[in-house]
UniProtKB/TrEMBL annotation:
InterPro entries: Ig-like_dom, Ig-like_dom_sf, Ig-like_fold, Ig_sub, Ig_V-set, T-cell_Activation_Regulation. It comes from Umbra pygmaea (Eastern mudminnow). Gene3D superfamilies: Immunoglobulins. GO terms for cellular component: plasma membrane. This is Ig-like domain-containing protein.
Length: 293
């Protein structure tokens, strides 16, 4: 008899538990993705076969065991930066998603949502992954300008964002990362300052455009910028003045020849005219002489 009662109790207990488990459950996105400085959402809804209302709700950080948001007896307590995603939420709204209004790197981690409804309780853990966008890479070189052919040059590429890598490519799209050195510094906001210095042993104006690519290890975030080395214009355009000088000289020579030819021709013309004049003079004198005879 005692055995039967305890068996019955067990059955009832089991039926109750499984029934309550079936009645409501938290349906959440396990892996959530946020970006530093932006809003992020921990998406969670209460699934129920019958209409239920929420009696209590808690969102907390697993690591610190710190409560971020609490709803109980019609009141909601929040921590700055954390709120329920649904505007004007009430306890009949089963979307209990948590909104982070300004995500920081340190918000990455595990969160727990506990809910108690008139259809039963449920608890679930979800994760938030936070990445940070890179600032537009700032490039510079030493020397800055008047670079000579085959001179060694150092190029810098600086950016701030999450921890990551910097790759380098030249004008021919060749990976020259092996000639670069990366320096990383963590700032107090959890972001990293990345600075890569590329050493070009022999800079040449025929391959003078360098591209730096900043990227996170996951490849989630990336940023690219290019840099043109400033070569010494006199060493680069050496042939141009020579061409101009030769051209001008040629033109002067040509004009001189033309002028000379013209001058010679006109002189010859005058001479023949004089010769004609002369002969007529002779004729005239001859005629005069004949007349006098
Ligand atoms: C929950 O609410 C948020 C904010 O309004 C919304 O972005 C999200 O899509 C909702 N989720 C579901 C499953 O309805
Ligand atoms: C880039 O970072 C390096 C190392 O921190 C620094 O020496 C250099 O001045 C920076 N360059 C620019 C343009 O900010
Ligand atoms: C470029 O070179 C670096 C280091 O040598 C390497 O890790 C990276 O995968 C290369 N990237 C590409 C796109 O080839």
């Amino acid at each position: 008899m005692i055995l039967f009662t305890s068996w019955l109790f067990l059955v009832i207990h089991f039926v109750f538990i499984s029934a309550s488990e079936k009645l409501i459950s938290l349906d959440c996105k396990n892996e959530n993705h946020g970006v530093h400085g932006q809003k992020s959402l921990l998406e969670c809804v209460v699934k129920s076969v019958t209409p239920v209302s929420i009696q209590a709700l808690t969102w907390k950080r697993v690591r610190e065991d710190g409560t971020l948001l609490e709803y109980y007896e019609g009141k909601t307590l929040t921590t700055p930066g954390f709120t329920l995603a649904e505007p004007d939420w009430n306890n009949r709204n089963l979307n209990v998603s948590l909104l982070l209004t300004n995500t920081k790197m340190e918000d990455e981690g595990e969160y727990e949502c506990d809910v108690l409804t008139d259809g039963g309780p449920d608890t679930i853990r979800v994760r938030l992954k936070v990445t940070a966008k890179y600032t537009s890479p700032v490039l510079s070189s030493i020397p800055k300008n008047n670079i000579k052919e085959n001179q060694p040059v150092t190029i810098f590429c600086n950016s701030t964002g999450q921890n990551g890598m910097i790759w380098w490519f030249d004008m021919l799209d060749q990976n020259c990362t092996h000639d670069a050195e990366l320096e990383t510094k963590e700032n107090n906001d959890g972001l990293f300052s990345l600075s890569s210095r590329l050493t070009v042993q022999k800079a040449t104006s025929s391959n003078s455009l360098y591209t730096c690519k900043v990227l996170s290890t996951t490849g989630f975030q990336k940023e690219t910028a290019s840099f043109q080395l400033q070569f010494d214009p006199s060493s680069m355009k050496q042939n141009l003045p020579i061409t101009i000088t030769l051209g001008v000289l040629g033109l002067v020579l040509f004009l001189f020849i033309v002028f000379l030819t013209a001058a010679l021709l006109s002189q010859q013309g005058k001479k023949s005219e004089k010769q004609v004049d002369g002969s007529s003079d002779v004729l005239l004198t001859k005629k005069k002489a004949d007349a006098s005879v």
